[in-house]
Amino acid sequence: MDLSKLLNKNYQTLYIVISTGKSKELLGKNMTTKELESMSEEEIDAYYKIYELNYADRINNHLISTLYSLYSYAVNKILSIDDIEKLQEDLNNDYNLTTELKSLTAGLAASCSKIMALISLGIITLKHVNFNKDSKEHCEEHCEELCNEHHKELVKELET
Length: 160
What we know:
Elements: H1 3-7, H2 9-19, H3 23-27, H4 33-37, H5 41-78, H6 84-93, H7 95-111, H8 113-127, H9 133-159
């Protein structure tokens, strides 16, 4: 094994992609680590470019899908949407809208993938927060309990 390959960031990334079984979806074909080891530096760089493009496209698609999801839930708070999932599907299937959004988010996906992962974590979590009336009542009850406990502590302090 050539030491320069082991120190090459592109080689290391491709090795991870291949060894985790993601080569078909991120490189366009099934590959083995043995095939990677026998590649020239130029071939490694070419496959790394393919990986970058596919990875950025996946991030882009996920980001736009999440944006549509958040949009549909937000709009449903203002307007009565008949079927939120159908709205999301219609938005995802609108070629013009999706193409324009991809042109806006393409730079983000390519240059800020680690930050985008953290943002995605927050957005996915927000999608699962229940903002309905029961949730509000639960928060109010919890706040009331905390206030009562704090009030009792203050009364004890004043009595001493």
